[in-house]
Amino acid sequence: TNTATNTPTDTPTNTPTVTDTPTNTATFTPTATDTPTSTPTFTPTATDTPTNTPTDTPTATDTPTNTATFTPTATDTPTSTPTFTPTATETPTNTPTFTPTATFTITFTPTLTATTIPSPTPVPAGRMPYVQDMEGDGALESWEYDPLKWQLVTEGGNVVLVGQSGLESSLEILGREVPEWQEPSEEDLLIQMRINAMAADSIGRILFRHSDQGYYALEFQPGYMALRRGTSGAIVRNTEQMLRDLQVPTQAGRWYQLSIWAEGSRIFVYIDSQLWLSVNDSGFALPTSGAILLQTRSATSGQVGFDDLIIQRPELASEHFQGSTLPTTWAASSFTNVGLDVEGDGNQYVRLSGDAEIVPAVLPLDNALIACRLYSEQGGFTARIRESGQGAYVLKMEAGNMQIQQLNGQGDVLQTWTRQNYYGRGKWFDFIIQTSSNRLLMYRLGELIFEEEIENAPPAGGLRFSTSGSDSLRIDDCLFTQAAFSSTIDAQFAFDILSTLETRIIRDGRWDWYEFFENQGNAYWWEGGAAADPGEYVNDEAAAERRRYYVVQTGGEAVARRFRPEVDETRTVFGWGEDLTTYRDSTDIYIKMYMRLPIDAPDGSTGWLGARSEPSVTGLGLNQYQLELVKGPGDTVTARVRANTSLDQAIKFEQVLDTTPDDWHELIIVTLDDRIAFFADGRLLTVLRGVELLGGTLAIGVEPNSIVDFDDLVVRDTSVNE
Which pTM does this prediction carry? Predict the structure, then answer.
């Protein structure tokens, strides 16, 4: 076998930016892995600068190069147990008045106000939940900032906000509007974002509840975090009161999910789904409303990145249990076995012992975040999520382990999973669960330990904690939110891969292949070889760019060329796709190609790049997922993502590209496990999850009556460390 390969002359990967995708995806999503990126490219339009007063500028230091990591997470194989019938206490109900057992009835007395659930349609500026993922031309519209100090940049395929402002140039979120979080009626607030202290001397500051009476400032830097309180008037860091500071395991150049929950005088800060900082401010109360600002401490060094901002209200049942009685937004089965207790430092909590249940009065939770601190004194406990007459998730804790069950409406156990060593006795731990459509995610110590897409997942429902026998459980600091959505969160795996490939060694001909279409030298890579080559190799010395390329012109029949799996001599890149649980044999690759619909191509000309390409059952076509370019009237070009499988022929995405006649277009497809991300001209188009095809190779093709040019195909394995 001829193993000669071309030597690449250009950088094999790039860092595409992102456009809004039509499918919303959950963003509070604390992440178990770091998602680094960096490289400025875009400067937004100038706007006015807020007049915050500087007082302190640190010495400039060099900015180190950012590093990147990516860690795929395997999941367990669910165990089917369709014949098991749980006891009466395991059976969810769907009545307006919740009845946990036959011996008592829990009735909710408060009148609840619905938390707004985001939809694909735009909402007025400043309405909550407010979501800004920094994508699109109007990402910073109505924000108050200095464009010389704050810029949107492209990093690892994602658009992020990067600041190097100093204390004299704060950025105010929606500073040209009056957002809801500044209205006096607002009390509790949840602020979420991704943050990256890009250099060793980077210090980012998030100011909230900022008003003429003062403000809070959270400082974030590598290895350290602090909460400070400022006085009225100008922002003067030297006069701020230190409320609490601590060392944290954060590093320069890595992205972290940061969440700030402010409820009254209490402030909780989470990093990557783990509670790190909590403060009860005993000073005079600041107004619960106010502006939200971003700063960096230095204007000369230490850039800080921000992305995926969400500002929203917690659910009314979110609670710290500091009152004299159980909150009216919680209902207990027994005031004998459920009550408030206090720790030595004065912190109060709810305690369940023996046969007891407690239920927060939340709206039916669908796409939601559930975050509580729990403390198992003795025995175990059970938590039920999305509980209704149509099913539930049941989480049983026993002997430090967690068993996860999916129940249907009849109480039958459909699937069961187990996580060992989930909790311990005699200490507080974070109980953090996220649900998003049919996805269930669970975290432990900031690490994602469970992620499954569950068939026939239970619909929206309630939440219930229970103990029995000799069990004893403490509950405190419960945060509930209906999850807001970011357009890019589902593509985070692809951004991670793009960043990783930038620094990974090229193994040309082993795990990486480059086809420059200069001649038929690599024709054996394609099925049929040189004899089946349908195109022509062009050398246009007059062209300004891409002088050598490959052109295919079709008549009444389509043409397709599939990459031969035998080219992968290691048999580790192009998989069989038979492992539906851990995806150890999936085809996980990065594909980049340039495509053009030339001026002389007739309207309707269509070319495509396919991934996970396999012969159909008849052998007359290909099953795959493909990214198409279609020429329309007036030399318009439409990008279209299509499934082409035995079960799915649907168009998943369609959008006209910004283009001029005779333009080349960069197409990128990234596949990992059961997910595929599609990019065109450096922008994210869409992400497919739970795809049917897991194996196969790749292909290019041209539809009937079309003229399409191809150039510079790059194929790289994305799972060489598996």
Answer: 0.68
